[in-house]
Model the fold of this input.
Amino acid sequence: MLAKFSVKKPVTITMMILIVIVLGVVSLSKLQIDLLPQMELPYVMVQTSYSGAGPEEVENLITKPMEQTVATVQNIDGIMSYSNEGSSMLLMQFAFGTDMDDVMLQLRENIDMIEGFLPEGTSSPLILKLDPNAMPIIQMAVSSKGDIHTTQKIAEDVISPRLERMEGTASANVSGGLTQEVEIMLKEEALKGYNLSSAYIAQMLQAANINLPGGNVSKGNNELTVRTVGEFKSLSEIRNLNIPLTKGGTVRLIDIADVNIVNKEQSSITKLDGKEVVQVAVMKQSDGNTVNVSKLVNKEIEKIKNEYPDINIVNIFDQADYINSAIKNLTKTALVGGLLAIVILLIFLRSFKTTLIIALSIPISIITTFV
Done:
């Protein structure tokens, strides 16, 4: 029946085939391209920081209580724990098919119950699902003719904000470089002379460096919001802070301590070709097309290079390169395989017309799968 209709209505059949081909091409152009497929791994990681604690303290005070708490979660297959200096990590494996959103909710509830019993100074436990796609699609190294602090400032103030505004990007995280902090070195003899303690000085600094809401004030038809601004905005404000004395009067902080801005000790150093650089890692949105996002990011990077000639930006990793290479190899393999199939059909069938019909049906049948 269908064969007779196809013979009697060749134009109709041709138009239907063309419509399917067009729809297939359009669908293919909008197909999301990623290095790894979308999948949900049944693994969850819990990280907790406890600065200054040794591995044994971390294990006894954090890791073991956390293990006992999370062990009651349903469908758990196993727990691996790592207790290091200043940090604890738990890696939990669940049965395949487990609803990981429900697992995250149960873990959060269980950990919230024990969080108040953890030692003072412990960070709030961070719960993370392992996602193979939650990795940077582009990693770049940034250097300049200036020092590393200048490079870091440009990366944080210029490169990162501009990349985060690009369509499809979720974040552009800057790592490496130097972080500055205020160092207060108390003078022991001066403290003894004024009968002051380091804990008291720390308390006064904490109390002074704070903004507080003052409520609302109504005046006629106008209502004003009042707040007290006390946060330090300059080094001189810290140095000239008046510290109350127990016997009355005050003393400036600079008279009992050396106050300076210093570079914080680096926890990691990133180098490229032996030169210290700042690293920028670009993350894409979950529904973003890796190849398209990469094109937009690289285009913006070229604009930044032209605007800041002293800045050197080098891509050290780009997922789009691997994806494009894989697609290129797949296309080449498909073409070679298709040509070999046509040649073999022609040899055995010895009919150009029959071979042509089969040869055309192969790509048409493939393109229709994308509709």
Summary: The first helix runs from residue 2 to 8.
